[in-house]
Protein backbone atom coordinates (compact mmCIF):
# COMPACT_ATOMS: atom_id res chain seq x y z
CA UNK A 1 0.00 0.00 0.00
CA UNK A 2 1.37 3.44 -0.91
CA UNK A 3 2.14 6.08 1.70
CA UNK A 4 -0.76 8.21 0.43
CA UNK A 5 -3.10 5.22 0.69
CA UNK A 6 -1.97 4.54 4.25
CA UNK A 7 -2.54 8.18 5.12
CA UNK A 8 -5.99 8.17 3.59
CA UNK A 9 -6.90 4.96 5.43
CA UNK A 10 -5.71 6.36 8.74
CA UNK A 11 -7.60 9.56 8.09
CA UNK A 12 -10.79 7.62 7.30
CA UNK A 13 -10.45 5.62 10.52
CA UNK A 14 -9.96 8.78 12.55
CA UNK A 15 -12.95 10.36 10.86
CA UNK A 16 -15.14 7.37 11.72
CA UNK A 17 -14.09 7.51 15.37
CA UNK A 18 -14.79 11.24 15.54
CA UNK A 19 -18.14 10.80 13.82
CA UNK A 20 -19.15 8.11 16.29
CA UNK A 21 -18.11 10.22 19.25
CA UNK A 22 -19.91 13.33 18.01
CA UNK A 23 -23.01 11.75 16.52
CA UNK A 24 -25.17 11.50 19.62
CA UNK A 25 -28.54 13.25 19.27
CA UNK A 26 -28.26 16.99 19.69
CA UNK A 27 -29.53 18.36 22.95
CA UNK A 28 -32.35 20.85 22.83
CA UNK A 29 -31.06 24.33 22.15
CA UNK A 30 -32.57 27.76 22.19
CA UNK A 31 -33.11 29.07 18.69
CA UNK A 32 -32.18 32.66 17.97
CA UNK A 33 -32.77 35.31 15.35
CA UNK A 34 -30.03 33.53 13.39
CA UNK A 35 -31.31 29.99 13.68
CA UNK A 36 -29.00 27.47 15.30
CA UNK A 37 -25.87 28.03 17.31
CA UNK A 38 -22.62 27.69 15.33
CA UNK A 39 -21.93 24.05 14.51
CA UNK A 40 -19.25 22.38 16.65
CA UNK A 41 -16.04 22.04 14.67
CA UNK A 42 -12.72 20.20 14.87
CA UNK A 43 -9.67 22.17 13.75
CA UNK A 44 -7.36 19.14 13.83
CA UNK A 45 -9.59 17.15 11.47
CA UNK A 46 -9.95 20.21 9.26
CA UNK A 47 -6.17 20.46 8.90
CA UNK A 48 -5.95 16.73 8.22
CA UNK A 49 -8.63 17.02 5.54
CA UNK A 50 -6.80 19.90 3.88
CA UNK A 51 -3.62 17.82 3.77
CA UNK A 52 -5.34 15.38 1.40
CA UNK A 53 -6.17 18.10 -1.13
CA UNK A 54 -3.65 18.63 -3.93
CA UNK A 55 -5.19 21.56 -5.86
CA UNK A 56 -4.03 19.75 -9.01
CA UNK A 57 -3.55 22.24 -11.83
CA UNK A 58 -3.85 25.18 -9.46
CA UNK A 59 -2.27 26.71 -6.37
CA UNK A 60 -3.08 26.63 -2.66
CA UNK A 61 -4.09 29.79 -0.80
CA UNK A 62 -3.38 29.44 2.92
CA UNK A 63 -3.09 32.94 4.36
CA UNK A 64 -6.18 33.15 6.56
CA UNK A 65 -7.21 32.03 10.04
CA UNK A 66 -10.87 32.34 10.96
CA UNK A 67 -12.25 33.79 14.20
CA UNK A 68 -12.30 30.32 15.77
CA UNK A 69 -8.54 30.06 15.25
CA UNK A 70 -8.86 27.52 12.43
CA UNK A 71 -6.44 28.05 9.50
CA UNK A 72 -8.48 28.12 6.30
CA UNK A 73 -7.41 27.26 2.76
CA UNK A 74 -8.62 27.49 -0.81
CA UNK A 75 -7.53 26.20 -4.21
CA UNK A 76 -7.11 28.77 -6.96
CA UNK A 77 -6.95 27.97 -10.67
CA UNK A 78 -5.58 30.88 -12.66
CA UNK A 79 -6.04 31.71 -16.32
CA UNK A 80 -2.97 32.65 -18.38
CA UNK A 81 -4.76 35.48 -20.20
CA UNK A 82 -6.16 37.28 -17.15
CA UNK A 83 -4.69 40.71 -16.51
CA UNK A 84 -5.75 44.14 -15.29
CA UNK A 85 -6.20 45.13 -18.93
CA UNK A 86 -7.96 41.87 -19.71
CA UNK A 87 -10.04 40.96 -16.61
CA UNK A 88 -11.93 37.69 -16.62
CA UNK A 89 -14.99 36.43 -14.75
CA UNK A 90 -14.47 34.63 -11.44
CA UNK A 91 -16.28 31.39 -10.59
CA UNK A 92 -16.34 30.36 -6.94
CA UNK A 93 -16.96 26.65 -6.38
CA UNK A 94 -18.45 25.55 -3.05
CA UNK A 95 -17.96 21.83 -2.64
CA UNK A 96 -20.27 19.19 -1.24
CA UNK A 97 -19.78 17.88 2.28
CA UNK A 98 -17.96 14.68 3.25
CA UNK A 99 -15.59 14.19 0.28
CA UNK A 100 -12.32 16.06 -0.37
CA UNK A 101 -12.25 18.81 -2.97
CA UNK A 102 -10.07 17.33 -5.74
CA UNK A 103 -12.45 14.54 -6.73
CA UNK A 104 -15.45 16.85 -6.70
CA UNK A 105 -13.81 19.40 -8.97
CA UNK A 106 -12.77 16.61 -11.33
CA UNK A 107 -16.43 15.57 -11.65
CA UNK A 108 -17.56 19.05 -12.60
CA UNK A 109 -14.94 19.64 -15.29
CA UNK A 110 -14.67 23.26 -14.15
CA UNK A 111 -10.87 23.23 -14.07
CA UNK A 112 -10.84 22.48 -17.81
CA UNK A 113 -13.84 24.68 -18.63
CA UNK A 114 -12.05 27.68 -17.11
CA UNK A 115 -9.70 27.85 -20.11
CA UNK A 116 -12.32 28.15 -22.86
CA UNK A 117 -15.87 28.65 -21.52
CA UNK A 118 -17.59 31.89 -22.47
CA UNK A 119 -18.84 33.64 -19.33
CA UNK A 120 -18.37 37.19 -20.59
CA UNK A 121 -20.25 37.17 -23.89
CA UNK A 122 -17.06 38.55 -25.44
CA UNK A 123 -15.25 36.21 -27.87
CA UNK A 124 -12.05 38.10 -27.09
CA UNK A 125 -12.28 37.10 -23.42
CA UNK A 126 -12.83 33.33 -23.17
CA UNK A 127 -12.35 31.54 -19.87
CA UNK A 128 -12.54 32.45 -16.21
CA UNK A 129 -10.66 32.31 -12.93
CA UNK A 130 -11.70 29.51 -10.58
CA UNK A 131 -11.61 29.70 -6.78
CA UNK A 132 -12.54 26.86 -4.42
CA UNK A 133 -12.55 27.74 -0.71
CA UNK A 134 -12.52 24.69 1.56
CA UNK A 135 -15.00 24.07 4.39
CA UNK A 136 -14.32 22.71 7.89
CA UNK A 137 -15.00 19.50 9.77
CA UNK A 138 -18.20 20.24 11.66
CA UNK A 139 -21.26 18.46 12.96
CA UNK A 140 -24.21 18.59 10.58
CA UNK A 141 -27.94 17.95 10.77
CA UNK A 142 -27.41 15.03 8.38
CA UNK A 143 -27.36 11.27 9.13
CA UNK A 144 -24.14 9.30 9.48
CA UNK A 145 -21.66 9.08 7.91
CA UNK A 146 -22.27 12.74 7.07
CA UNK A 147 -23.18 13.81 10.59
CA UNK A 148 -19.60 14.95 11.18
CA UNK A 149 -17.49 15.71 8.14
CA UNK A 150 -16.18 18.42 5.88
CA UNK A 151 -18.98 20.84 5.20
CA UNK A 152 -20.39 24.33 5.38
CA UNK A 153 -22.36 25.61 8.36
CA UNK A 154 -25.65 26.56 6.74
CA UNK A 155 -27.50 26.38 10.08
CA UNK A 156 -25.98 29.36 11.92
CA UNK A 157 -27.31 32.24 9.85
CA UNK A 158 -25.58 35.38 11.08
CA UNK A 159 -24.26 36.31 7.67
CA UNK A 160 -23.25 39.94 8.25
CA UNK A 161 -19.58 40.80 7.88
CA UNK A 162 -19.37 41.96 11.51
CA UNK A 163 -20.96 41.01 14.82
CA UNK A 164 -24.58 41.87 15.47
CA UNK A 165 -26.41 42.47 18.72
CA UNK A 166 -30.00 41.31 19.21
CA UNK A 167 -31.87 41.62 22.52
CA UNK A 168 -28.62 42.36 24.31
CA UNK A 169 -26.82 39.30 22.94
CA UNK A 170 -23.83 39.49 20.61
CA UNK A 171 -23.74 37.18 17.59
CA UNK A 172 -20.44 36.71 15.77
CA UNK A 173 -20.37 36.35 11.98
CA UNK A 174 -20.65 32.92 10.37
CA UNK A 175 -16.98 31.93 9.98
CA UNK A 176 -17.58 30.04 6.73
CA UNK A 177 -19.10 33.15 5.14
CA UNK A 178 -16.11 35.15 6.39
CA UNK A 179 -13.65 32.66 4.89
CA UNK A 180 -15.39 32.78 1.51
CA UNK A 181 -15.38 36.58 1.70
CA UNK A 182 -11.66 36.61 2.43
CA UNK A 183 -10.61 34.41 -0.47
CA UNK A 184 -12.83 36.26 -2.95
CA UNK A 185 -11.35 39.55 -1.70
CA UNK A 186 -7.84 38.19 -2.18
CA UNK A 187 -8.44 37.22 -5.80
CA UNK A 188 -10.32 40.44 -6.59
CA UNK A 189 -7.44 42.52 -5.21
CA UNK A 190 -5.25 41.17 -8.02
CA UNK A 191 -7.13 43.54 -10.34
CA UNK A 192 -7.71 40.74 -12.86
CA UNK A 193 -11.36 39.97 -12.04
CA UNK A 194 -14.33 41.29 -14.00
CA UNK A 195 -16.29 42.77 -11.10
CA UNK A 196 -19.62 42.42 -12.89
CA UNK A 197 -19.10 38.70 -13.32
CA UNK A 198 -18.37 37.01 -10.01
CA UNK A 199 -20.39 33.80 -9.96
CA UNK A 200 -20.88 30.84 -7.62
CA UNK A 201 -21.39 27.17 -8.46
CA UNK A 202 -22.39 24.96 -5.53
CA UNK A 203 -22.73 21.21 -5.02
CA UNK A 204 -24.94 19.54 -2.36
CA UNK A 205 -24.19 21.13 1.04
CA UNK A 206 -22.13 23.66 -0.92
CA UNK A 207 -25.21 24.35 -3.05
CA UNK A 208 -27.20 25.06 0.11
CA UNK A 209 -24.49 27.47 1.24
CA UNK A 210 -24.52 29.04 -2.23
CA UNK A 211 -28.20 29.94 -1.91
CA UNK A 212 -27.58 31.68 1.41
CA UNK A 213 -24.41 33.38 0.21
CA UNK A 214 -25.90 34.85 -2.94
CA UNK A 215 -28.86 36.17 -0.90
CA UNK A 216 -26.49 38.12 1.34
CA UNK A 217 -23.63 39.22 -0.90
CA UNK A 218 -24.66 41.69 -3.64
CA UNK A 219 -21.35 41.49 -5.51
CA UNK A 220 -22.22 37.93 -6.63
CA UNK A 221 -23.85 38.24 -10.04
CA UNK A 222 -25.58 34.84 -10.19
CA UNK A 223 -25.39 31.26 -8.94
CA UNK A 224 -25.91 27.76 -10.31
CA UNK A 225 -26.31 24.79 -8.00
CA UNK A 226 -26.64 21.03 -8.11
CA UNK A 227 -28.54 18.94 -5.58
CA UNK A 228 -28.65 21.41 -2.72
CA UNK A 229 -31.32 20.92 -0.02
CA UNK A 230 -33.08 23.91 1.48
CA UNK A 231 -30.50 25.56 3.77
CA UNK A 232 -33.29 26.99 5.91
CA UNK A 233 -35.19 23.76 6.65
CA UNK A 234 -34.08 20.18 5.95
CA UNK A 235 -34.16 16.92 7.91
CA UNK A 236 -33.54 17.47 11.65
CA UNK A 237 -32.63 21.16 11.50
CA UNK A 238 -33.30 22.18 15.10
CA UNK A 239 -34.07 25.80 14.21
CA UNK A 240 -35.61 26.06 10.73
CA UNK A 241 -36.35 29.51 9.38
CA UNK A 242 -38.19 31.12 6.48
CA UNK A 243 -36.31 33.65 4.35
CA UNK A 244 -38.21 36.92 4.04
CA UNK A 245 -37.71 40.13 2.08
CA UNK A 246 -38.85 42.34 4.98
CA UNK A 247 -37.88 42.63 8.63
CA UNK A 248 -38.21 39.30 10.42
CA UNK A 249 -41.33 39.05 12.57
CA UNK A 250 -39.83 36.44 14.91
CA UNK A 251 -37.02 33.91 15.20
CA UNK A 252 -38.76 31.69 12.66
CA UNK A 253 -37.93 34.20 9.91
CA UNK A 254 -34.64 35.44 8.51
CA UNK A 255 -34.48 38.72 6.59
CA UNK A 256 -32.22 38.39 3.55
CA UNK A 257 -30.24 41.43 2.49
CA UNK A 258 -30.42 40.81 -1.25
CA UNK A 259 -33.66 39.70 -2.91
CA UNK A 260 -32.98 39.67 -6.67
CA UNK A 261 -30.17 37.11 -7.01
CA UNK A 262 -30.55 34.88 -10.10
CA UNK A 263 -30.19 31.24 -9.04
CA UNK A 264 -30.40 28.14 -11.26
CA UNK A 265 -31.23 25.04 -9.18
CA UNK A 266 -30.61 21.57 -10.62
CA UNK A 267 -31.54 18.37 -8.78
CA UNK A 268 -32.65 14.76 -9.30
CA UNK A 269 -36.17 13.36 -9.16
CA UNK A 270 -34.73 10.81 -6.72
CA UNK A 271 -32.08 12.51 -4.64
CA UNK A 272 -30.10 11.89 -1.49
CA UNK A 273 -32.10 11.71 1.78
CA UNK A 274 -35.34 11.94 -0.20
CA UNK A 275 -34.62 15.63 -0.80
CA UNK A 276 -36.46 16.17 -4.10
CA UNK A 277 -39.69 17.46 -2.46
CA UNK A 278 -37.57 19.65 -0.20
CA UNK A 279 -35.79 21.26 -3.15
CA UNK A 280 -39.06 21.78 -5.00
CA UNK A 281 -40.53 23.47 -1.94
CA UNK A 282 -37.43 25.63 -1.58
CA UNK A 283 -37.80 27.04 -5.08
CA UNK A 284 -41.45 27.84 -4.41
CA UNK A 285 -40.51 29.44 -1.09
CA UNK A 286 -37.80 31.61 -2.65
CA UNK A 287 -40.16 32.83 -5.37
CA UNK A 288 -43.19 33.39 -3.14
CA UNK A 289 -41.14 35.19 -0.49
CA UNK A 290 -39.48 37.39 -3.12
CA UNK A 291 -36.03 36.50 -1.78
CA UNK A 292 -34.40 35.21 -4.98
CA UNK A 293 -34.96 34.98 -8.72
CA UNK A 294 -34.96 31.17 -8.65
CA UNK A 295 -35.27 28.82 -11.63
CA UNK A 296 -35.16 25.05 -11.31
CA UNK A 297 -34.71 21.94 -13.42
CA UNK A 298 -35.37 18.40 -12.21
CA UNK A 299 -33.49 15.52 -13.84
CA UNK A 300 -33.89 11.76 -13.92
CA UNK A 301 -30.98 9.34 -13.59
CA UNK A 302 -30.24 9.72 -17.32
CA UNK A 303 -30.20 13.53 -16.92
CA UNK A 304 -33.45 13.94 -18.84
CA UNK A 305 -35.73 16.76 -17.65
CA UNK A 306 -38.76 15.90 -15.53
CA UNK A 307 -41.54 17.73 -13.71
CA UNK A 308 -42.33 15.49 -10.74
CA UNK A 309 -40.35 13.86 -7.94
CA UNK A 310 -40.18 10.08 -7.71
CA UNK A 311 -42.60 9.42 -4.84
CA UNK A 312 -40.92 6.10 -4.08
CA UNK A 313 -37.87 8.13 -2.98
CA UNK A 314 -39.80 10.04 -0.34
CA UNK A 315 -42.61 12.54 -0.11
CA UNK A 316 -41.71 14.49 3.04
CA UNK A 317 -41.10 18.18 2.46
CA UNK A 318 -38.16 18.13 4.87
CA UNK A 319 -36.64 14.98 3.39
CA UNK A 320 -36.76 11.27 4.13
CA UNK A 321 -33.39 10.37 5.60
CA UNK A 322 -33.99 6.63 5.84
CA UNK A 323 -36.02 5.96 2.70
CA UNK A 324 -34.31 2.93 1.13
CA UNK A 325 -34.60 4.03 -2.51
CA UNK A 326 -33.35 7.49 -1.62
CA UNK A 327 -30.40 5.92 0.20
CA UNK A 328 -29.49 3.78 -2.81
CA UNK A 329 -30.72 5.32 -6.08
CA UNK A 330 -30.86 8.83 -4.66
CA UNK A 331 -27.33 8.74 -3.30
CA UNK A 332 -25.99 7.28 -6.55
CA UNK A 333 -27.61 10.04 -8.60
CA UNK A 334 -26.55 12.68 -6.11
CA UNK A 335 -22.93 11.60 -6.40
CA UNK A 336 -22.98 11.89 -10.21
CA UNK A 337 -22.40 15.42 -11.45
CA UNK A 338 -24.91 16.28 -14.25
CA UNK A 339 -22.21 16.78 -16.86
CA UNK A 340 -24.74 17.08 -19.69
CA UNK A 341 -25.99 20.25 -17.98
CA UNK A 342 -22.71 21.94 -17.10
CA UNK A 343 -22.81 24.02 -20.29
CA UNK A 344 -26.36 25.13 -19.44
CA UNK A 345 -25.27 26.12 -15.93
CA UNK A 346 -22.43 28.20 -17.35
CA UNK A 347 -24.78 29.73 -19.92
CA UNK A 348 -27.10 30.80 -17.11
CA UNK A 349 -24.22 32.54 -15.37
CA UNK A 350 -23.13 34.26 -18.58
CA UNK A 351 -26.68 35.57 -19.09
CA UNK A 352 -26.79 37.18 -15.63
CA UNK A 353 -23.94 39.65 -15.04
CA UNK A 354 -24.44 42.51 -12.63
CA UNK A 355 -25.84 45.67 -14.17
CA UNK A 356 -23.23 48.23 -15.33
UniProtKB/TrEMBL annotation:
It comes from the Bacteria. GO terms for molecular function: hydrolase activity. The keyword Methyltransferase does not apply. Keywords: Hydrolase, Signal. Residues 1-28 form the signal peptide. Gene3D superfamilies: alpha/beta hydrolase (3.40.50.1820). InterPro entries: AB_hydrolase_fold (IPR029058), Plant_Biomass_Hydrol_Est (IPR050955). PANTHER family: FERULOYL ESTERASE, UNNAMED PRODUCT-RELATED. This is Uncharacterized protein. It comes from Hydrocarboniphaga effusa AP103. The lineage of its organism: Bacteria, Pseudomonadati, Pseudomonadota, Gammaproteobacteria, Nevskiales.
Amino acid sequence: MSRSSVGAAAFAAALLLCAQSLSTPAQAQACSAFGNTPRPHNAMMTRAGYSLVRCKGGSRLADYTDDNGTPRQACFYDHPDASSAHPLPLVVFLQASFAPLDGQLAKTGLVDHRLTADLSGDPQRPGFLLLAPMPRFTTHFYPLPNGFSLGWDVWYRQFAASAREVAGLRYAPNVDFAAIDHFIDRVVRSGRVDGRRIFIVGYSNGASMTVEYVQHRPRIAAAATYSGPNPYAFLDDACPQRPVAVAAADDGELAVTRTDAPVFLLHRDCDVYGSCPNMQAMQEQLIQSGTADARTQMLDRAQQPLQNCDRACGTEVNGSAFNLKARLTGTAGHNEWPDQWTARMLQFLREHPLAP
